[in-house]
Amino acid sequence: MTRVKVLYASSSVGLGHVTRDCYLAKYLKWADVDWLTAGQALKYIEYKNFKALPVSSELKSIGKLFESLFVDGWLRVTLKDLRKIYNSIKENAIKITESVDFERYDLIIADEFWEFLFMDDLTAKSVFITDFMRFKPVKKSLFQRILLPVVNKKLMRSFMKFDLRIYVGLNKEYHKNFEYYGQIYTHDDFGEIEEEDYILVNIGGTEIGRPILEKITTILDKARMDYRIIGGATHFNPNPIRDLTRAKLIITLGGYGSLLELSRFKKRGIIIPLGNHFEQEDNASAFRNREGYRVLSLEKISREILLRYISEVLSEEPRPPKFRDGSKEIAERMRKLLDL
């Protein structure tokens, strides 16, 4: 069978996108893959020794811009902030258009790679992967409640330019314009690993969780609890599965990949969604009222509550929500799109 050329564009926001994309790519055995991304995600691609297009190093990291929207873990968005991100995405799109020969590729895959929404014609068969399909307003924000319905309508129209649209979110949600096969895992399994007596604190793929980390570690230090840290630029760990699987308990933000790993490896967890972040709040809701898990809001972080949650969770047998790795089916669906 003739091998096809694939351009895989991965969001630069956090590491959840790029890790699941690399996991999915191993099932594209019929393809030679070039990568397009930026920021920490590009650092991960380089760690994997995958081929990234040179323009990747010239792109603005949307993840870095996203970090600037948060204050002490809370999302605080102004119209000026949104305009800055919009313009940066558009600038990236122009730079990509000038640098990339799309006609070289048989298939283009975009995992929430917003730059492609600014392009009229991608010239090849195309797939868009996402774990959400619309923005949700903060309850108290009149500005967002007025603006976001308009944004969501335009967003859905932009999605429709792709030949195939795949939803992979944690909360099963069906839409006539998207196909659903389950989730995409983020790392290979190490097999059976013996649990050790430490807590893992996971702040995700950005520096947004840094203030939360400081609160948590201060409490753990005073309680003389052993812990390790992964996430962010300072504690970047491209292969965290050994630390994840050995931990007796994981304190984590509500990112997609982090919660998939909690469920997949059946690890006890305390989940702290970022404030006003609808995706993380939706993700965390799948673990509410389940043994072995607690969801802790930012404003309620205290020594008393955190230590009580740790004690309770460690005494319970974890019963995580069940997710399904749809990677093989998604890869096969892409192959069929190309009539291979």
Helix and strand topology:
Layout: E1 4-10, H1 16-25, E2 31-36, H2 39-47, H3 62-67, E3 70-71, E4 74-75, H4 79-99, E5 107-111, E6 125-130, H5 142-159, E7 164-167, E8 179-180, E9 199-202, H6 210-222, E10 227-230, H7 241-246, E11 249-252, H8 256-264, E12 269-271, H9 278-285, E13 293-295, H10 303-314, H11 327-337
Parallel strand pairs: 1-2, 1-5, 5-6, 6-7, 7-8, 9-10, 9-11, 11-12, 12-13
Antiparallel strand pairs: 3-4
Helix pairs in contact: 1-2
Write structural notes for this entry.
- The chain is an alpha/beta fold and 340 residues long.
- The protein folds into two domains: 195 residues, Rossmann fold, CATH 3.40.50.2000; 116 residues, Glycogen Phosphorylase B (Rossmann fold, 3-Layer(aba) Sandwich).
- Strands 2-1-5-6-7-8 form a six-stranded parallel beta sheet.
- Strand 12, helix 9 and strand 13 form a beta-alpha-beta unit.
- Helix 1 runs parallel beside helix 2.
- It is globular, with a radius of gyration of 20 Å.
- The model has no long low-confidence stretch (mean pLDDT 92).
Kindly report the average pLDDT value: 92
Q: Over all CA atoms, what is the radius of gyration?
A: 20 Å
Helical stretch tally: 11
Measured as a percent range, the helix fraction is 25-40%
Order of helices and strands: EHEHHEEHEEHEEEHEHEHEHEHH
Unreliable residue runs: none
* Strand portion: 15-25%
Overall morphology: globular
What is CATH's topology name of the largest domain?
A: Rossmann fold
CATH architecture descriptor name of the largest domain: 3-Layer(aba) Sandwich
- Tell me the total number of β-strands: 13
Task: Give the strand order of the largest sheet, numbering strands 1, 2, ... along the chain.
Answer: 2-1-5-6-7-8
- Span between termini: 8 Å
CATH homology superfamily of the largest domain = Glycogen Phosphorylase B
The largest sheet is: 6 strands, parallel
